[in-house]
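Go through this fold for my students:
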Amino acid sequence: MIAAAEEERFTLAMHVRGELPRGAIGFCLKQAGITMRDVGSICSPLKTYTNYAQRLSEYFKYQFGHSPKIELYDHHLCHAASSFYGSGFSEATVACFDFSEESSAVLVAHAHGNDCRVLTRFGRHNSLGLYCGRLTQYIRYQMTNDECKVMGLSSFGSPEYLDRFAKLLRPNGISISYELDPELDSAGATRTSSPAISRRGRSASSPRRWRCYPTGTVPLQFQDRPENYYRRY
């Protein structure tokens, strides 16, 4: 390993959504003392995306004047490889729990040497990342951004609503599987401004927190018609 960097270190924008890492690439090239013409290949996930290799090639030609060979790999196998090959184990079962990418949300694989055999995949409708994202948005934090804050805050709470949440996320026997309640509304769940939990899901969870207010507190201007607040926020 010669160099590695996150693009947000150069743009100061967390996660840098929708942008390719020009600053991070330039930094790594400088650290290695090479130019893009010295690079043998560019490896990226999103193997199933339409024309993605072509789009990457055009991007590198435009930004750096040259495009090395583009090699695309399965998104979740990349996660599995980054965990397994740095673990020191010669053989392991690898589980990847993601939000959703390339039509999958979870991958379980058996890794041995240079071989990584997929055992099972879970679809987006059973995404634990999506489940956590919905709950994050429900308590008025930002979905796909603030889940880490909610996870940290959870250690200060008590399992008061554990039985209710157990109805939303259920283990499926003794197999490597689980099931999310299909009544949870997944429509628009990737849009941080839209409601991410259906009315049934809300009734099964704790009282909804109003943005910038403690749980159980309703802003004065909305106390007569709280539903108007939910329409706006």
User: Anything to note?
Assistant: The mean pLDDT is 78. The chain has three domains: 8-72, 75-123, 127-216. The radius of gyration is 22 Å. Strands lie at 41-44, 69-72, 91-101, 104-112, 115-122, 169-171, 178-180.
